[in-house]
Amino acid sequence: MKRGGAAAALGLLLLWSSPAFAWDTFLEEGRSEPPVLEAAPDLAPLIATPPGLYYVTDTYVQDVVTSSGPLTTYSTATVHESTGSYARVLDTVPTGASSAFDGSAFNGRAALTDGRSVAGTYYENFVFADGAFVPISIVFFQDDAELARHQATTKPPVTTVPSPAARPSTPRPLVSACCAAERPVVIAVPPAPTKPVRPVISILPVSIPLTMVEVLRGRAVTLWPRAFADGREVPVRSWTVVAGEAGDALATAGSGGVPFRSSWSRLAPPGGAYEVVFRIEVDTPETGHRTVDGAITVVVRSPALQD
């Protein structure tokens, strides 16, 4: 009894594991492989588009220009694919005609060999975002052709060029070939701008400028002719008394390191004064060689000296 039960169990186990008895739904349909599932359809075409707008299935790749003998063709290469974008026609233009969209396409618009613009169509591209169609670009699809112009069989007219001997000659200065390279090139250099010079008279080598000084009758006084340029003192090369009343001066000219020294033994007319005018000479890189005139008023006071 036990032996018969074991045999039945073994036979049932073999029945489950045998492939000959397995249930194959594909075999019932006469196929040995499962069917290939088709890709899910693009949902973009299901979106309702405004009039004139359509779903793009051929995408722009590049402009193409091909030549076959005398014929040149201007076309546009595309690839059949969907990028989820939309488009509409903006303008279709013939050869040589202008368009309001010239210059707006990202790929431009070519021209024929004679300069005329090629024929074609402007398209505007859109994407659907946030429930609205948003314009993103403009593209030009060129579609044109031209035949090469044949060269004229007749020879072009020959232009007669007069020989050099027949041309009027222009006299030129004679230049020695051996010495032309040795001649120095002279370049005119404008003089450097010079700073204005301001004359100053003081009673000490370094003191405040004076325009008037009071002295006692017959008493000697020392005056220093000085000069300033751009707020800085510059050395005086020489000075000379060129006008006025110099009094009993020891010298009426001198170098910059020597002062003017004088005294006045007579009083000026009532209400008047003496004036001394110095011509001051400077010669520095800042000022160049310059001369300026500076004056000082001398008022002579009593006590009067007896003549």
Please, what is the average pLDDT? 78
Q: What is the count of DSSP helices, taking H or I runs of 4+ residues?
A: 2
Largest sheet, spatial ordering of strands: 9-16-15-12-13
Q: What is the distance, rounded to the nearest whole angstrom, between the alpha carbons of the first and last residues?
A: 183 Å
Radius of gyration: 55 Å
Number of strands: 16
Order of helices and strands: HHEEEEEEEEEEEEEEEE
Sketch the major β-sheet: 5 strands, mixed
CATH class of the domain at 197-301: Mainly Beta
CATH architecture field of the domain at 197-301: Sandwich
CATH topology of the domain at 197-301: Immunoglobulin-like
Task: Give the helix/strand layout.
Blueprint: H1 2-17, H2 25-28, E1 54-55, E2 58-68, E3 71-80, E4 85-93, E5 120-129, E6 132-142, E7 144-147, E8 197-202, E9 212-216, E10 221-229, E11 232-234, E12 238-244, E13 253-255, E14 260-262, E15 274-284, E16 288-301
Parallel strand pairs: 9-16
Antiparallel strand pairs: 1-4, 2-3, 3-7, 4-5, 5-6, 8-10, 10-11, 10-14, 12-13, 12-15, 15-16
Overview of the structural elements:
This protein is mainly beta and about 300 residues long. Among the domains are: about 45-145, no CATH class; about 195-300, Immunoglobulin-like (Sandwich), CATH 2.60.40.60. The chain is about 5% helix and about 40% strand. A five-stranded mixed β-sheet has the order 9-16-15-12-13, with no helix packed on it. The N and C termini lie far apart (about 185 Å).
